[in-house]
Write a structure and sequence with these properties.
The longest helix is centred in the first third of the chain and has 20 residues, at about 5-25. The relative contact order is 0.11. This protein folds into 2 domains: about 5-230, no CATH class; about 245-380, no CATH class. It starts with a helix and ends with a helix. The protein is about 45% helix and about 15% strand. It has helices spanning about 5-25, 40-50, 120-135, 215-230, 255-270, 275-285, 290-310, 315-320, 325-335, 340-360, 365-380; strands at about 55-60, 85-90, 95, 100-105, 110-115, 140, 150-155, 160-165, 170-175, 180-185, 195, 210-215. Strand 6 (about 140) and strand 7 (about 150-155) form a beta hairpin. The chain has 11 helices and 12 strands.
Length: about 375
């Protein structure tokens, strides 16, 4: 018999599929919006795949894939529907189900998400970004919202970037050449509106033909957009594990435990989602020493509990659950990567040693020796 969390995940996946089926029969919200049929969806995906985009099928309700380990997914036009382990048939076997939405993993692409509700501020942010970086031929929008997403190709120095500054309803996010992030590019948004493009969609633009942004230009454009939208900037687009601020700076176990409690309260209370879930993943990987799979299970469980406690936000927490593995995998990888800065590296080593010790106490005796050896090796490196 499957566990309660697994059954809840199955229920969420089934609800998503039912939602997609119902939405397929909802009339378009605007004269320009339409739902593509399944053959056209597959054609769009095949054209994107041929153009170098990393296609990933997504659920329209959550804007995320319903299957685990999607960052490693490789789209095959001949076999377009991946197994969905969280839905099962009467025999208990994993089923295949149509993900009506189409997403793109942001490996090899720069996605600039101007996630601002106020039309004037959103316009100002876009104009400022394009003034520095130039325009993009692929601009996603949706009826009834001021939010837009611009697509570029990564240039020199742009890799493994995931940055989000601001908070709903005004933030700017950048996912650049990052294999652990994905964005929805075609389908019906959870709001009911169909995603549109100002000109051609991504299926008409091979990645190699998009304008390239180097890191200096990207950071400058990012800062200009934030300033134009009056969003306080607390840091730029950072690469990999180069940043060790925020929740990382916990001096001891008590402080790390307290920080975990704070982020859990923010999540379960519905006060914060994106930043709190990122902080929780970072704490679990960096200070507690969990691997990606362990941290993902905790993030998914927290999302399920938070959805039960905050029914009006259930869809957003379903998105958090769908992103649990990608988020945990990203922070687990950062936790294992020493920074280049010597001062930060010393802190990194001491924090990792402490994390090893905490994890060591949870292990069975026969495995503790190997962990202790690893911790001593880390101390020697310090």
């Amino acid at each position: 018999m499957r566990s309660e969390p697994a059954m809840k995940s199955q229920k969420a996946a089934s609800a998503c599929l039912q939602w997609s089926h119902e939405r397929a029969h909802v009339p378009p919200m605007t004269s320009g919006a339409r739902i593509t049929d399944w053959r056209e969806t597959l054609d769009i995906r095949a054209r994107m795949h041929a153009g170098g985009w990393r296609v990933v099928p997504v659920c329209e309700r959550t804007k995320g894939p319903l299957f685990a380990d999607w960052p490693r997914f490789r789209y095959d036009p001949a076999d377009p529907e991946p197994p969905t382990p969280r839905t099962f048939n009467a025999k208990g076997e994993p089923t295949r189900a149509k993900h009506r939405g189409t997403g793109a993993i942001t490996s090899g692409v720069v996605a600039v998400d101007i996630d601002i509700d106020d039309a004037d501020r959103a316009h100002a942010a876009r104009v400022a970004f394009e003034h520095v970086a130039g325009g993009s031929p692929v601009v996603r929008w949706r009826p009834g919202a001021a939010r837009v997403m611009l697509f570029f190709a990564p240039g020199e120095g742009v890799a493994d970037i995931s940055a989000s500054i601001g908070a709903d309803p005004a933030k700017v996010e950048i996912f650049a050449d990052h294999a652990g992030r994905q964005v929805m590019v075609h389908g019906r948004h959870p709001s009911g509106a169909v995603l549109q493009y100002e000109g051609d969609g991504p299926e008409s633009w091979p990645l190699a033909e998009l304008p390239h942004l180097d890191r200096r230009t990207l950071n400058a454009a990012f800062g200009a957009a934030l300033e134009a939208a009056a969003i306080p900037r607390d840091g730029g687009a950072s690469r990999g594990g180069a940043s060790l601020g925020g929740v990382r700076r916990q001096p001891n176990a008590d402080a790390a435990t307290a920080a975990l409690g704070v982020e859990l309260r923010r999540l379960l209370g519905g006060e914060s989602m994106h930043r709190a879930s990122n902080a929780l993943a970072d704490l679990l990987a960096f200070h507690i020493g969990l691997d990606a799979e362990q941290a993902a299970r905790i993030l998914a469980a927290v999302a399920i509990a938070a959805a039960d406690l905050n029914p009006p936000m259930a869809e957003r927490f379903a998105q958090m659950e769908a992103k649990a593995f990608g988020r945990a995998r990203w922070y687990a990888r950062i936790a294992e990567t020493p920074p280049d800065d010597p001062d930060k590296a010393r802190f990194w080593v001491s924090a990792r040693v402490a994390a090893f010790k905490r994890a060591w106490r949870l292990l069975p005796p026969e495995e503790q020796a190997a962990f202790l050896d690893a911790a001593l090796t880390m101390r020697g490196a310090a």
